[in-house]
Amino acid sequence: MSRYNKEERVKRIIERVSRESHVTISELADHFSVSHMTIRRDIEELQKQGMIKVVFGGKIVKNFIETSPPYNNKARENTAYKKNVALKAWHFLQPGQVVYMDGGTTIKELAFRVDMPLTVLTNDISTASILNENQYVKVILCPGELVRESLSAYSTETLRFLSDHSCDIAFIGADGFSKEYGAMTTSQAKADCKWMAAHRAAKSILLLDHTKENVFCNYKIADLDFFSEVIIDDNALIL
């Protein structure tokens, strides 16, 4: 018989998911000495309250996002971490390269640092605007429907364009990541475009800050080892 009543059990489920980033129904049933059905009912109630989410293969997680926050909100958050990542990424640039810069505010910080002749393909209008002011850079803007919250193009036209172009380096962003599940994002169109850009590049570099660690999304881009390099700020747990 379980030593916890329902209220205590639910509280401890939330505590454990927060502490361990993800757990399974079987693990919780064993821990609380109750049936899988009992845990499923607890999980269903917590999901309705928006406190947890069941994702890939029945994993239960707390940190989950359905859609990306508005671009202007993201641009004001965690700027020190993003600048740290951008500085690390800058060291991979060499004059004359053809570079793809994905959408996102971390990659925008990299755009500010460009100080050499490059040809840059980008689907992000903010990054394109920054680079357009740079006398060293030729900018090629990817076609496609603009996603309002990200100010980037992710659509069938974007995917087709990326499949037809290769580059020396592709810098890719993500909305969340974990060591087990890889890089994730909030739509299939975004996942497809990010994967294609990385696939077509001689070197693909994933840019992340630690605040996205163990944040889960519905759509997987790729495992972390799919990328040539993964650059994370110095506060990440998986370094």
From TrEMBL:
Name this polypeptide is given: DeoR faimly transcriptional regulator
Pfam families for the chain: DeoRC, HTH_DeoR
Domain HTH deoR-type as annotated: residue spans: 6-61
Keyword match DNA-binding: yes
Family annotation (InterPro entries): Carb_Metab_HTH_regulators (IPR050313), DeoR-like_C (IPR014036), DeoR_HTH (IPR001034), NagB/RpiA_transferase-like (IPR037171), Tscrpt_reg_HTH_DeoR_CS (IPR018356), WH-like_DNA-bd_sf (IPR036388), WH_DNA-bd_sf (IPR036390)
Keyword annotations of the record: DNA-binding, Transcription, Transcription regulation
Species this chain originates from: Pluralibacter gergoviae (Enterobacter gergoviae)
GO MF term set: DNA binding; DNA-binding transcription factor activity
Signal peptide as annotated in the record: none
